[in-house]
Amino acid sequence: MIVPAAAAASKAILCFIHISNMLLLGLTGSIATGKSTVSQILSSSPYNLPIVDADKVARQVVEPGTAGYNQIVAHFGPSTPDLLVAPSPENGGEAGHNGKGRPLNRPALGRRVFGEGKDKDRKALNKIVHPAVRREMYKQMISAYLRGCWAVVLDVPLLFESGWEPLCGTIMVVAVRDAKVQMERLRARDEHLSEEDARNRVASQWDVRDKAERCMRRGEKAGVVVWNDGGKEDLKREVDRVMAVVQRGHPQWWAWLLLFCPPLAAASATWSYVRSWWIKRQWEQEKQREKAKL
After folding, report:
1. If the chain, 294 residues long, is cut into consecutive pieces of 10 residues, what is the mean pLDDT of each piece?
2. Which residues belong to the signal peptide in this entry (predicted)?
3. What is the domain range of residue 203?
4. Closest Cα to residue 27, out of 51, 4, 6?
């Protein structure tokens, strides 16, 4: 849980970013749909957009020497003997590469917090990691704004599930129309997976075609889908097509108008947030009704 002062500060930062002239472009998808490749395209010319990668941030905030690392070691270390990787010349020995400790043994930590009857441990870990991830993401968003970026990409695999949806001016979902394509790419990437293993991994996630449908419910300016059923060149052309839509929906003159007219910026941000929240609520209610009919 975030303490009240930190929670208030977090909300203030989000409000500041949301009413600024910078677009928060949420990027999401599913396993083996090409989200990472799209992220690389957006970070390269001609777009050169800064990427706030939630997965990378989650690793950064628990590196040796960070507050998150120290809290995890203090909480789980006494009861998890293999919490840290074994010292070796390759990993810097007892002091680690940066002299601040050995890295976390992620498989050991996973065994400790995941599985039946381990809710308490998992909540304790989330209590440490989630606030740290959000704080670091806010810092990177503010940094992008101060550098004058017209947009920043929030690369969040569980964007819809984690509550970021209403905060994004536009959401981009990377999806495939054919589930077989997703399966083939996953098995080509992770050759050790059997067909059943790959099917289970895909099935464990929210169907990306449902994500695409939910995204498009937001309207053309607020929700776009990159269909990635072809090759790399096809994907590049699809990203260019979608980014043209995004840029038309957020013209430079509108960004300058919001910058120099704070009341209009506040009203625009409020409308965007409320509209996103309402669409999200309607979608969830519709899905609940569909389940009730089964």
Report:
1. 48 55 91 95 96 94 94 93 88 79 89 78 90 91 87 93 86 95 91 84 88 92 95 96 94 79 81 86 87 78
2. 1-32
3. 17-50+151-293
4. 51
Is 134 within 8 Å of 9 (Cβ atoms)? no
Rg (CA), the chain: 21
The verdict on 39 and 78 lying in the same domain is: no
Q: Which of 133, 1, 7, 142 is nearest to 68 (CA)?
A: 133
Cα distances (angstroms) measured from residue 82 to each of 13, 78, 102: 38, 10, 11
Q: Is 44 left (phi over 0), alpha (psi -120 to 50) or beta?
A: beta
Report which of 33, 17, 29, 19 is spatially closest to residue 176, judged by C-alpha positions. 33
Claim to verify: residue 97 and residue 35 sit in the same structural domain: no
Q: Are residues 126 and 183 in the same domain?
A: no
Compute the distance between CA of residue 20 and CA of residue 152 in angstroms, rounded to an integer: 12
In the structure encoding, which two tokens stand for residue 224, read together? 């776009």
pTM of the model: 0.83
CB atoms within 10 A of CB 96: 18
Task: Report the domain count for the chain.
Answer: 2
Query: Quick one: 92 and 37 in the same domain?
Result: no
**91 and 211 belong to one structural domain:** no
Helix (H, G, I), strand (E, B) or coil at 129: helix
Helix H or strand E encompassing 155: strand 151-155
Q: Which residue has the tokens 């009730």?
A: 292
Would you say 101 and 87 are in contact if contact means Cβ atoms under 8 Å apart? no
Phi, psi (deg, nearest 5) at residue 34: 105, 15
> Which value, to the nearest 10 degrees, does the dihedral of the CA atoms of residues 14, 268, 40, 144 take?
-50
